[in-house]
């Protein structure tokens, strides 16, 4: 890792992942997976939550079905997964530590976007409940023109919408799947969350335990001050 590439730099744009990065929703996904599998009387391996982190929800639903030995249930498990997740988020929307402060500061010196594997309405709902939606100029999700992470499409599109070259854009990510997507797109990357292991960390410029670390707050605040004095 090369933290200097982040902490001494002002990005032309910043693209955030949503689940687990801005919003504390990984626990909702885990609960939704368990509820969906309970609906159909199936089970997955104990390490399923970690292996499915960051996957597109359709891939997660099919993986649940495959691991349960019931591949024909893929579409139904996917629908149940999404239904349970929407209900859980609506009932208890929570931002990750430091996310609100970083987004509010970052929006003062760079255009912001979200690149997520979730459906657009889910991302819009999450950010709306957390009162963060207004900070983001663009939301990019998988569609006919953008393949899901770990493909680079959503990050490439988000950078382009923000008017920035990928190399001048910062990605903020929490999952190996998302890091791979941003790295393939050519963005600089700030990873956040529990240490991901050397394989994932090798693709990241800076890894922090949470976005409320003092050096991250100072980095953003300095750039706001420069913008105001320019």
In short:
The chain has 230 residues and is of the alpha/beta class. It contains 11 helices and 6 strands. Strands 3-2-1-4-5-6 form a 6-stranded parallel β-sheet, sandwiched between helices.
CATH class of the largest domain: Alpha Beta
CATH topology assignment of the largest domain: Rossmann fold
**What ranges have pLDDT less than 50 throughout 5 or more consecutive residues?**
none
Radius of gyration: 17 Å
* CATH architecture label of the largest domain: 3-Layer(aba) Sandwich
Strand content: 5-15%
- The CATH superfamily label of the largest domain reads HAD superfamily/HAD-like
Q: What is the end-to-end distance?
A: 31 Å
In terms of topology, how is this protein built?
Elements lengths: L3 H4 L5 E4 L9 H15 L7 H4 L5 H11 L6 H18 L7 H8 L5 E4 L4 H10 L8 E3 L12 H9 L7 E5 L2 H10 L2 E5 L5 H4 L4 E3 L5 H16 L1
Parallel strand pairs: 1-2, 1-4, 2-3, 4-5, 5-6
Helix pairs in contact: 2-5, 4-5, 6-11
